[in-house]
């Protein structure tokens, strides 16, 4: 398989500064346009995360977010002011490929870098702060317009002129479907097993689903979505 998703990247972004916003440490507003991304197995040179426990790591080296989603969120009045890339903290911005077209485990070529899709973005309360909307993270969770993460299979440099090509498909579960399953409002062991069977799924998601199955329950999402316990 060799299918071109995007002929040219809309924007590349990175940043390594951390800012306090309403008492919350975040690097989301410190991303800036880059002429290239130097991609290593565990990081992008010049890029870092404020919360490495929940962001970054081998399964989340790069965040890809569809630029057209900004327009939809604005139409839903979920942004207090005009926002565009890289306000979501993304590294890669494109037009033309979205969560319905990208699958868990997809092997992707960008320039001389080979990547694998690992998981959707799990929205957290920092997005509420970023966009001054108390339910932004919940809206992202429910709409599934979240973007996705990559692990790095081969290192190299990504440039704006590079195309993005799907070179191998490992599963039939899209990012949108993975979001739907993972955030089902009711415990569903059968659906969790389907997602667990996906080759390439991020280890943190694997462990989370395994905990649910062991405990026969879903964890409380209030802290992640709103920054406070329910």
Folded structure, characterized:
- With 230 residues, the protein is of the alpha+beta class.
- Helices cover 24% and strands 23% of the residues.
- It has helices at residues 68-75, 126-131, 136-143, 175-182, 189-196, 203-215, 222-226, and strands at 3-6, 11-14, 19-21, 24-26, 32-33, 37-39, 62-66, 92-94, 107-110, 113-120, 148-154, 156-158, 164-168.
- The strands form 3 sheets. Strands 1-13-9-10-11-7-8-2-5 form a 9-stranded mixed beta sheet. It has a two-stranded antiparallel sheet with strand order 3-4.
- Helix 5 runs antiparallel to helix 6.
- The radius of gyration is 17 Å and the shape is globular.
- This is MOSC domain-containing protein.
- Residues 29-167 form the MOSC domain.
List the helices and strands and how they pair.
Blueprint: E1 3-6, E2 11-14, E3 19-21, E4 24-26, E5 32-33, E6 37-39, E7 62-66, H1 68-75, E8 92-94, E9 107-110, E10 113-120, H2 126-131, H3 136-143, E11 148-154, E12 156-158, E13 164-168, H4 175-182, H5 189-196, H6 203-215, H7 222-226
Parallel strand pairs: 7-8
Antiparallel strand pairs: 1-13, 2-5, 2-8, 3-4, 6-12, 7-11, 9-10, 9-13, 10-11
Helix pairs in contact: 5-6
Stretches where pLDDT falls below 50 for ≥5 residues?
none
Which oligomeric state applies? single chain
Helix content: 10-25%
Mean pLDDT: 92
As a percent range, the share of strand residues is: 15-25%
Largest sheet: 9 strands, mixed
- Content-based structural category: alpha+beta
Strand order of the largest sheet: 1-13-9-10-11-7-8-2-5
Q: Can you count the helices? A: 7
- The rough form would be described as globular
Order of helices and strands: EEEEEEEHEEEHHEEEHHHH
Give the total of beta strands. Answer: 13
Q: Could you tell me how far the N terminus lies from the C terminus, measured between alpha carbons in angstroms? A: 46 Å
Give the radius of gyration.
17 Å
Protein name: MOSC domain-containing protein
Pfam family, one: MOSC
InterPro entries: Benzoxazolinone_Detox_Enz, MoCF_Sase_C, Pyrv_Knase-like_insert_dom_sf, Tri_helical_YiiM-like
């Amino acid at each position: 398989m060799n299918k071109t998703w995007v002929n040219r990247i809309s924007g590349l972004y990175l940043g390594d500064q951390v800012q306090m916003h309403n008492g919350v440490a975040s690097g989301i507003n410190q991303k800036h346009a880059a002429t290239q991304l130097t991609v290593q197995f565990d990081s992008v040179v010049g890029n870092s995360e404020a919360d490495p426990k929940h962001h970054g790591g081998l399964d989340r080296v790069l965040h890809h977010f569809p630029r057209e989603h900004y327009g939809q969120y604005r139409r839903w009045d979920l942004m207090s002011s005009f926002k565009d890339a890289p306000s979501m903290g993304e590294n890669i911005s494109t037009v033309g490929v979205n969560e319905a077209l990208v699958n868990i485990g997809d092997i992707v070529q960008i320039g001389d870098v080979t990547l694998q899709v690992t998981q959707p973005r799990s929205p957290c309360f920092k997005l509420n702060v970023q966009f001054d909307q108390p339910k932004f993270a919940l809206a992202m969770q429910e709409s599934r317009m979240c973007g996705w993460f990559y692990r790095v299979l081969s290192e190299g440099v990504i440039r704006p002129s590079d195309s993005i090509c799907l070179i191998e498909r490992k599963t039939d579960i899209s990012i949108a479907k993975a979001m739907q399953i993972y955030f089902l409002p009711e415990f569903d062991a059968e659906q969790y097993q389907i997602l667990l069977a996906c080759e390439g799924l991020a280890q943190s998601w694997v462990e989370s689903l395994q905990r649910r199955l062991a405990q026969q329950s879903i964890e409380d999402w209030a802290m992640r979505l709103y920054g406070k316990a329910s």
